[in-house]
Every structure is written in structure tokens, then in C-alpha cells.
Here is the input.
Amino acid sequence: MSTTSTDREVLVDVGNDFVVKVARVVFGALFYGIYLILTYFLVVLFIRRARNPKTKPPIYLVLVTIILFLGSTAFLSFDIADLVARMNIILIHHPDEAYQAKLDEADDRLKRLVWTGEILFIFMLPLGDTVVFWRTLALFQENKKIMIIPFVTLFGSIVAALYELGCDLKTHWAINSLTPSAGSVGALSCSHADLSSYTLSFATNIICTCLIVFRAWEHRKFMNQYLEKSRRRSPAERVLTLLIESGGVYLLLYILQSVPIYDKTLSEPASIAFNIINAIIQQGMGMYPTAIIVIVQMQRTFWADSEDGDSRQTNNSKPGMLFAPRAQSTTLGTTTGTATDFEPGLYSAIARDDTNVSKKAT
Here is the structure.
């Protein structure tokens, strides 16, 4: 097969495209393997918790976990299918055909795969955000009004995603660019909805992470007020720290993902780096909410055992003695009272810490 100068230029583009696709599959598969390990631990925890009515996981968490895992599996499958299909069309089929024609054929055949992954992406984001919102809401049982702002951004993200879906259906899935980014699928109004959904999802994670940081700072300040700063951290403090650290890592990925979304002029190395980040965050959308659930569920065994011990001690105690955890008000009054059935584990643990400190102070 003779190769013209135009074909050689197209061949360079094809080579760069394959580098990007292979990088996506390699890093996507690596983090999918980590996700598999995390999911295994979560399944084991769910099975153990299901035997105890006190620690039985809500059906909502089980369903969200399954959907997120299936979504992340679909993302990796799409990347593998895209790579294999392009190799067959460009490198194997019709060897005498010009590279540009084969590249155009590959792009045309894979359009459905592109918009399927894009639509899945915009709905996976708010779905994962619901877990982050749930976790944050559980920390503010006495001050739920503060959760109005992240609720508005979460709801707006879902509305924008639904609008984009309707817009894409109306425009018959017009594709402006095969580069994976917010705004690559659909007409201009569709891409604006895509960008809005991503931005609102980003805002939801920032706000929720900041609220968790504030809650951890408030609790730590209360503990240090009565105890020495060299004391050992309580289980509740360790969980809050893990939630903050995992949220920080997820926000970092969000920021890196945002660079090409808000500034689409990328060099070739930057494009490769972005696609690697995109492949990682596609797994991170499921990994981060799953990690939150694992962190909380692993600690609930300790808290449930502690509550059982408190209950047995209460039953054997004299009338009038109080063993149920009730916390004194902190400076902002967010830890008074006992937890509700919404999520008793972490909230009760924080309240128990404050109660024990108050008892030592008196």
C-alpha cells in the first residue's frame, strides 16, 4: 500500500489517538482493580451488617453501590471496546484504504459509544454526590438548614443533566467533538447544560467537604477545650479525618478534570494527561462514595458494640442513673441530643465523645 504525505500526517494523528486510548485503558484498569478490592470489602461488610438489625445497611446504600459499580464497569468496557474497534477498523480491515477514510469510518461507527459514555458520566456524578450529601447531612442532624446550599447545587446538577438528556434526544445526539469533555456531545445548548451539571456537581463536593472539615474542627475544638492536645484521637475523629482526606483527593481529581473542560486548548502531552485523569475520575466517581460507605460501615461495628455495652450497663444499673449518650452543646450547638435513625453511627459517636468530655470536665 502506497503512503502519501497526507496519509503520513493522518498516521501521526492515528498514532497519538492510540497512545491516548491505551493510556486510558491502562490507568482505568488499574483503578478499576483498586475499586474491585474496595467493593469486595464493602460486600463483606454489608453481609455482616445485614445479620444485625442495629447495623443493617439502608437499601438505598446497597442500590447506589451496585449502580456506581456497574457504571464504572461500563466506563472501562467502553474504553476497551473503543480501542479494539479502532484497531480493527484502522489497522486490520481494508489495508488498501486511505488512513483518513478509515479514521472517519472509525469516528462514525463509534459515535454511539461516545454519547453513551457521556450521558452515563453526567448522571454518575450527581448519583455519587447523593452519597456525599447523605454523609454530610448525617453530621448536621441538629442544624439541617445549613444543608440547603449543597441540596440546591445537587438538585441543580440533576436538573441540568436531565435537561441535557432531553436536549440531546431533540438534536439526535449531534456530536461536536470526539474528545471526552463537558460540551463535546450535543448542540450548544446541550453543552451548556453539560457544563452546568458538572459545575454544580463540583460545587456540591466543595461545599460538603468544607462542611465536614468545619464539623471536624468544631468537634476537635470542643475536645481540646477540656482534654490535653496530646490525647489520642477518638474513633469519631479518625473517621472524620478519613472523610476529609478522601474528599480532598477527590476534589483534586475534580480540579484536574476541570482544566480542559473550562479551557479546551490543550497540547498533545496535556491531552494525554487529561485523558488519564478522565479515566481515573470515571472510576473515582464510584470509588469515592464507596470509600465513604466503607469507612463508616467499618466503624459502626465498634459503635454498635459500645452501644450494646451501654445498654447492658443501663439495664443492670440503679433507677435514675443515665447511661445514654447525650452531649452538651458545643459553641454552635450542633451536637446536642442523640442521633436519629437516619444514620446513628458517626453522629452518636461524636455525641458520645462530647458527653464523655463533659463528664470529665464536671
About this structure: Residues 221 and 330 are 9 Å apart (CA to CA). The first helix runs from residue 5 to 50.
